[in-house]
Specification:
Membrane-bound Lytic Murein Transglycosylase D, Chain A; single chain; 2 strands; mainly alpha
Length: 224
């Protein structure tokens, strides 16, 4: 056998054995359990390795073809296998890029949703604080100005007979209100002219808890 034929057969065996070993290599599954940041870094480090490996494989095949001359039937089959392998690598890279862009969009949406929820919580807390302050201000009774006592002349005071002792008035009885549907503590306090805090304290209520229809509230005695 001619030395050139033995060299061609050895090169052909090298190409076929290399392609077969690459076919038997198991594909590493995509690590779905990793976090978004780790998956992105893993794919970025994988891309140059895959591209470099594919380029090196193409260079080896071209060098062998250049040294051995025109490709024979077995070499054509090897080239077809390499071409299909390269196409599979390209498809996998395309899928990885699509998954990477999808994960990036999901991360942006999660951050936007978290920021919106935090903003809504801040607005709700500010509104509740403002509403409570307005309720306390409205329930606080207005201070009445005191009228100056009229000066009594000494002569008129001496001429007036001693006033009879005032009759003792019976103690005022507390009032009761039955809550109707839709009524609030603030509205009831305004209706009976009772301080909001006094009404809450007298009935031992939570100022933020809603009233129930049919609930009985005790009101302070009516002031004369």
């Amino acid at each position: 056998m001619h030395p050139s034929d033995r060299e061609s057969e050895s090169k052909e065996s090298f190409v076929l054995s290399g392609s077969a070993s690459r076919r038997e290599e198991p594909e590493e599954p995509y690590a779905y359990g990793r976090s978004a940041g780790e998956g992105t870094e893993w794919r970025k480090s994988l891309k140059p390795l895959v591209v470099a490996g594919a380029g090196l494989l193409v260079l080896i095949v071209l060098a062998l073809l250049f040294l051995t001359g025109s490709p024979r039937g077995s070499e054509r089959e090897a080239l077809k296998g390499i071409d299909s392998r390269l196409r599979a690598v390209e498809e996998k890279l395309a899928r990885l890029e699509a998954m990477e862009s999808g994960l990036a969009r999901l991360e942006r949406r999660d951050k936007e949703a978290a920021a919106l929820a935090e903003r809504l919580a801040q607005l709700e807390a500010a509104w509740n604080k403002k509403f409570d302050q307005l309720a306390r201000d409205a329930a606080r009774p207005a201070a009445r100005p005191q009228e100056p006592a009229a000066a009594v002349k000494p002569a008129e005071a001496a001429a007036k007979p001693a006033a009879a002792p005032a009759a003792v008035k019976p103690a005022a009885q507390p009032r009761v209100h039955v809550v109707q549907k839709g009524e609030t503590l603030y509205g009831i306090s305004r209706r009976y002219k009772v301080a909001f805090d006094e009404l809450v304290k007298l009935n031992r209520l939570d100022p933020k808890a809603p009233l129930k229809a049919g609930q009985t509230l005790t009101l302070p005695p009516e002031r004369g």
